[in-house]
Amino acid sequence: MADGGQFGPYGAFFPDGASVADGASVAERLSRRLQLAGIHYAWVMLGLTFVTMLATSSVMGMAGVLLRPLQHGFGWSSGQISGAMALRLVLYGLTGPFAAALMLRYGLRRSVCAALGCITAGLQMMTRMGALWQLYIFWGVFVGFGTGMTAIVLGATVANNWFKARRGLALGIVATAAASGVLAFIPISAWIAAHVSWRLSVAPPIALCSLAFVLMALLARDHPSELGLAAYGDSAILPRPPRRMGAARLSIDALKNVIPQRSFWLLIGGYAICGFTTNGLIQTHFIPLAQDHGVPEVAAAGVFAMMAMFDFIGAIGAGYLTDRLDPRKLLLLYYLARAVVLLVLPFCGFSGWALALFAAFYGLGWIAPVPPTIRLTSEAFGVVQGSLVFGWAFAGHQLGAAVAALGAGVMRDALGTYTPAFVLGGALCVVAALTALLIGRQPAPAMEGASTVIATPAQAFAGD
Question: Is residue 398 a contact partner of residue 147, using CB atoms and an 8 Å limit?
């Protein structure tokens, strides 16, 4: 294959005629060498996706770190700051449905590199802000849009395009990045914020996003056929789905197609509760909650590092189990376990042992609902359309997170305690656990014109 690939400059991040050949030749040479070693390029794409999601999720972990420093530095209330945090979560979620469509329209590499540039610009400008409205623009809008483009929808798109066999395992791996970046880098940024400056605490996420940008620009490809490959575990080289005009219309058409179906509302409702109790409640408000009980900020941030270790185990395990068990029963188990932990947390005394147990149990289940949710979505709506539908489910996840981020902050200001918010989160998890069993698994009719490649459940998960 000549430099530039089968599709010429399409799919390259760089404008036509600008450094395309260099980027293509690097990917093609690497692909050929890996083939000689018996390694499929799908694992390279999975690694690139892991690094990208790790970098952007490390940005999201900054919410809990920044809340108290911004209060002390500018005199803003928890509710005011939480509003900006909630705006980021809303845009983070609402970008999801259009992220999948934008990747179909402009290519994965172009879309992801543009998003990484947006995140980096937002973080850099935020370090120079001096007014509350700037927090809403730089954090809420810039970071919200960029992280939404590189969230779990990216992982689902890569897994669906590049893997036929081991798709659940691939989803588990990228899901680990989505949470591990949030959890693992919080202690680093918290230490910098506490001992140096909150403005410098964004340096680690900026460095990671810059690294991900370079790797994506050089090595990423939109589809296996661009390298003359079949998807991992498949024998047929399928053509890349045609580029779709009107990304917004494509996403909205997918939504219209599934709105009448009960399975969609059950999926989006349960996933909204998932977001309420992770990104919204724990990610944003756990550190302030622990500080209310006398735990220093850096020590509270260390709990997230412990959670990251257990999250790695839980996410990989969830991917493995999703390939082999009924995903509805997995969701029942995960949400019931999360409910118990949330209901106990406000009354645990916040001793060292209590926090260690919390980190273990909540870490194991932090990202675990993602692989079974994606599998249920693909089974019900097909692989390509399923990516678009999962984007809408992800929007529901982040809207739930935004409600928790803002609502818990307002409750804390009004009542002087976070306890009611955490009890509510536990109760909602019970609801999510019970409704998971009602989700149907039969494939729905494909959306007309959505794609020329719509897989059945058997096709989507064969080969394991």
Answer: no
Write down the mean pLDDT value for the chain.
79
Overall pTM > 0.70: no
Orientation angle between helical segments 282-292 and 62-74, nearest 10 degrees: 60
Per DSSP, the residues of 230-259 read PPBT-SS-PPPPPP-S-HHHHHHHHHHHHT
Map tokens 């810039």 to a residue.
142
**What burial letters (b/e) apply to 307-328, b meaning 16+ CB within 10 Å?**
bbbbbbebbbebbbbbbeeebb
Nearest-10 Cα torsion for 38, 42, 45, 50: -100
- Any long-range contacts for 8-11 (C-beta under 8 Å, 24+ apart)? 10/107, 10/243, 11/107, 11/108, 11/109, 11/110, 11/221, 11/222, 11/223, 11/226
CA distance 264 to 87: 24
Residue 12 domain-assigned? no
Q: Which residue has the tokens 């709990």?
A: 303
Q: How many CB atoms lie within 10 A of CB 329?
A: 13
- The verdict on residue 397 lying in a domain is yes
Residues 6 or more apart whose CB falls under 8 angstroms from that of 343 comprise 422, 423, 426, 427
| Amino acid type, 345 | L
Over residues 352-371, the pLDDT tens digits come to 899 999 999 998 888 889 88
What single letter denotes the amino acid at residue 404?
A: A
Instruction: Find the CATH number of the domain harbouring 414.
Output: 1.20.1250.20
Whether 244 maps to a domain, the answer reads no
C-alpha 232/C-alpha 184 separation (Å) is 30
Other CB atoms within a 10 A radius of the CB of residue 222 amount to 27
Q: Whole domain around residue 311: which residue ranges? A: 23-223+254-460
Whether residue 156 contacts residue 390, with contact meaning beta carbons closer than 8 Å, is answered with yes
Integer Cα distance of 73 and 67 in angstroms: 10
pLDDT for the residue numbered 270: 93
